Design the sequence.
């Protein structure tokens, strides 16, 4: 079991920045990949950014490339999402998730943190 706790959401003006953090605990040795997802009101959940725990390869959705940066701290078992130049369309509940091996859905999810962007 892996437990995830997100923090850092809040209200920000368009063009501003926020930094989300996700702390993992429990069986962290089983982490293969961690990701940030978001779900806006009335929309399906979508992948925002992912990072492979070993090696640190990253992936970004086209909509956030150049604005968001995902990073990890293996020693602290945390993953961060730096979000710059936020837009109204970035407003959503952001979730942190863990995948324990390739080819399967993400196994563990955090409770989510709200990001609100005012224009």
Sequence:
């Amino acid at each position: 079991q892996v437990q995830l706790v997100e923090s850092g959401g809040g209200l920000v003006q368009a063009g501003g920045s926020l930094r989300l953090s996700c702390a993992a605990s429990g069986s962290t040795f089983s982490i293969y990949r961690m990701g940030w997802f978001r779900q806006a009101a009335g929309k399906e959940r979508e992948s925002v950014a992912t990072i492979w725990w070993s090696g640190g390869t990253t992936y970004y959705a086209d909509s956030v490339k150049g604005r968001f940066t995902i990073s990890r701290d293996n020693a602290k078992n945390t993953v961060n999402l730096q979000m710059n130049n936020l837009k109204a369309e970035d407003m959503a509940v952001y979730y942190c998730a863990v995948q324990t091996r390739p080819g399967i859905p993400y196994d563990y999810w955090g409770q989510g943190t709200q990001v609100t962007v005012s224009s």
